[in-house]
Amino acid sequence: MPSATTTTATPTARATTPVRRSREPAPGLFLTLLAVCSAVTAANIYLAAPLLPLMARDFGSAPSAIAWIASVAQLGYAVGLLFFAPLGDSANRRRLVAGLTLVTALALGASAAAPGAAALAVAMFVASAATVIPQLLVPLVAERAPAERRARHVAAVIAGLFTGIVGARVLGGLAGQAFGWRWVFAGAAVLTLALGLATALVLPSRRRREGPLFAGLVALPSVLRGSPELWRACVRQAGMFGAWSALWTSLALLLTGPEYGLSTATAGLFGLFGLTASAVAPLAGGLVDRFGAARVVRSAYLIAAVSVPLFWLGGHVLGALFAAAIAVHAALVASHVANQTLALTATSTPATANTAYVVAGFAGGAAASALAGAAFSHFGWGGVCAVAGVWLVLGWGLTSLRR
Asked: Which residues have C-beta within 8 Å of that of residue 366, sequence separation ≥ 6?
């Protein structure tokens, strides 16, 4: 049966290739468009973090009291990945991306008009659940890339994704200070609509597999159990992303608090250190192609372990905070490129495997962000650093015990 499927699929692909090529831009432009779309859509998940002080002032509460909104966005993204990302193995990608783009834009518009924290949290949850477009694009890039350059092609989209995360903090903080946080969400809705629909137009328009639409979701547990490499990638990235999320989502509270007393716009500029991620991604991709994913992940964990005490010292010394921000972003993106490349090649269902991988990462990030907000309220910045350290220990320790 597998051989019959292969022989029938090949002529079909050849017959339809001229049609798809006429609708697609050149390969380099295609990859660039996907990277830019990933940047814009990924930014939506992190818009709330740099705007927490402005939201708190508008809603009449303390910033630490609404810090949970940032974790709600990450949790929404994890839920959206669980339900929508597996569809990349079967659904019409063009229609799926277009539909999710419309839902995301509408939810971002509702966020801009939210009358209170509860309404904002619901709108952010829906927007984040629908903005899973980057994780529908990454498997497509991995499928199209030559085997010897697969990690580098994946890294290009990941670089765009992290550029969006950095842009959410930097531009979100600046725009929020200048125009108000509501206009930031309104602008994000417009950008998401434009880039999402433009990307949908160049994607393949046919279903990839026949069968139940949500077969990938049903198969998730068996796919995860059947691949130790995928399981290891999921747990290690959950630990790494959780540590990063705990530190990064709480950073605005430290910088705008009594220790430093920075404005929201100035604190947002701190996110420029996150551009380390965009610079490291292509380098990490080359290292993965050359030396393998395991070595890159191990090195990334060592760098992240060094960044945690630097962040703790950065609670009082600004220079240490600079160094820590560079180190943790380098560690995160190197680990992500390596682990995601491994996840995409570990099974015969890359979109389903990628769903398991990214859901694990963002579930770890959401849990760590929620704990970090509580830790900051009760123990200050040192409590946040402790949460990050625990997440790294769990991520590496659990995968080292199970072979």
From this structure: 71, 72, 74, 75, 78, 245
Q: Residue 207: pLDDT band by 50, 70, 90 thresholds?
A: low
Q: Which amino acid, 257?
A: G
Inter-CA distances, 300 with 307, 331, 403, Å? 11, 4, 20
Q: Which amino acid is at 375?
A: A
C-alpha dihedral sign at 290, 291, 292, 293: negative
Q: Please give the full DSSP string across 288-305, using - where no structure is assigned.
A: HHHH-HHHHHHHHHHHHH
Return the DSSP state at 91.
Answer: S
pTM of the model: 0.69
The residue assigned the tokens 């991306």 is 97
Q: Please report the DSSP string for 58-71 in residue order.
A: HHTS-GGGGTHHHH
Maximum CA extent, the chain: 68
Alpha-carbon separation of residue 123 from 267, 296, 337 (angstroms): 25, 37, 30
Spatial CA neighbour of 220 closest among 395, 357, 362, 100: 357
Angle at 130 between CA 30 and CA 220, to 5 degrees: 90
Give the count of beta carbons closer than 10 Å to the beta carbon of residue 221. Answer: 10
Question: What is the pLDDT at residue 41?
Answer: 85
Residue 397, amino acid? G
